């Protein structure tokens, strides 16, 4: 059996400074709903990746806990530091702090559970991934916090039954599992490319678009794509307190993971109760906009968190004009 790998990605640029609200966060309209969603406060996003720089200025106050599931650092379970860079970038997109002189993520008040499942080379075994998923499901924070979302920007070619069972258990426990579609795309929606766990029906599989709302040519296409998010030239946190631009479906995924923290806060306030995983998924896809591509490429469309508010405003305007006529 092959190992699980980081889904290939491109490092476009590394810098010491960054815009406070990156273009990807703006594109999905996260700032428009921060007030209503309390910026994701009260939610915990489990990031299964290469770890995270725990003292990065934009991340140090977001990390609630972490654990190492790899042989790195002499198998020290307490050391979840990032020795690759990918995990730090993903974590920053999901929940980087909104503060002066740095960069913010989609849900800047959510907390991060960092589970290091990939080593410095971006490789890990299925047993470690499965253990980390089970850990995320069972984890309880110091004040009774529980995992809200599991985010995985990784994949492999093998459909492993034990991995599928772990994913299904998370969903059964009410935890959405967000996965990158993969970067083996050939720019044709007519041909399928599958990676696991992304291709499992139970996960929320995320494809990538650029800032012109065009599907990235590398983005996998298949009949299990759920939605798309920004994944080209995405600026986020990086090693040594720096920032970097990466491209890949790995970068699209944490946009959706962070968005679920916002959607959960908005929808559960409106319904005045806890929502199931299926209900959270429904609330997420209600906040998408079709781009005109086949469903195998874009699923339900591009994530736009203020889409419902826009529809409500249009309906109100139509209602007002009808009233004026009568």
Automatic annotation (TrEMBL):
Keywords: Hydrolase, Protease, Serine protease. Residues 40-288 form the Peptidase S8/S53 domain. CDD domains: Peptidases_S8_Subtilisin_subset. InterPro entries: Peptidase_S8/S53_dom, Peptidase_S8/S53_dom_sf, Peptidase_S8/S53_subtilisin, Peptidase_S8_Asp-AS, Peptidase_S8_His-AS, Peptidase_S8_Ser-AS, Peptidase_S8_subtilisin-rel, Subtilisin_Carlsberg-like. Pfam families: Peptidase_S8. The keyword Protease applies. The active site is at residues 49, 86, 250. Belongs to the peptidase S8 family. This is S8 family peptidase. It comes from Planococcus shixiaomingii.
């Amino acid at each position: 059996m092959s190992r699980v790998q980081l889904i290939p990605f491109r490092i476009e640029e590394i810098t010491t400074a960054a815009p406070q609200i990156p273009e990807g966060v703006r594109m999905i309209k996260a700032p428009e709903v921060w007030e209503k969603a309390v910026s994701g406060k009260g939610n915990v996003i489990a990031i299964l990746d290469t770890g995270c720089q725990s003292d990065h200025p934009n991340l140090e106050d977001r990390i609630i806990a972490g654990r190492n599931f790899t042989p790195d650092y002499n198998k020290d379970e307490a050391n979840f530091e990032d020795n690759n860079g990918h995990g730090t970038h993903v974590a920053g997109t999901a929940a980087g702090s909104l503060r002066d002189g740095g960069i913010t993520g989609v849900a800047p008040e959510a907390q991060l559970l960092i589970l290091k499942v990939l080593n410095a080379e971006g490789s890990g075994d299925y047993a470690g991934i499965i253990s980390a998923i089970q850990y995320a499901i069972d984890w309880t924070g110091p004040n009774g916090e529980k995992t809200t979302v599991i985010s995985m920007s990784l994949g492999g070619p093998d459909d492993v039954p034990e991995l599928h069972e772990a994913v299904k258990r998370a969903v059964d426990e009410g935890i959405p599992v967000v996965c990158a579609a993969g970067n083996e795309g050939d720019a044709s929606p007519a041909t399928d490319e599958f990676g696991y766990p992304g291709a499992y029906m139970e996960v929320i599989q995320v494809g990538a678009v650029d800032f012109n709302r065009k599907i990235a040519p590398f983005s996998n296409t298949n009949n299990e794509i759920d939605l798309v998010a920004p994944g080209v030239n995405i600026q986020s946190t990086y090693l040594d307190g720096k920032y970097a631009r990466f491209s890949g479906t790995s970068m699209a995924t944490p946009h959706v993971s962070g968005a679920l923290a916002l959607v959960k806060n908005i929808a559960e306030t409106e319904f005045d109760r806890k929502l199931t995983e299926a209900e959270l998924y429904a609330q997420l896809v209600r906040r998408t906009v079709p781009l005109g591509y086949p469903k195998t490429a874009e699923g339900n469309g591009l994530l736009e968190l203020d889409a419902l508010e826009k529809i409500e405003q249009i309906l109100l305007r139509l209602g007002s004009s009808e009233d004026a006529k009568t």
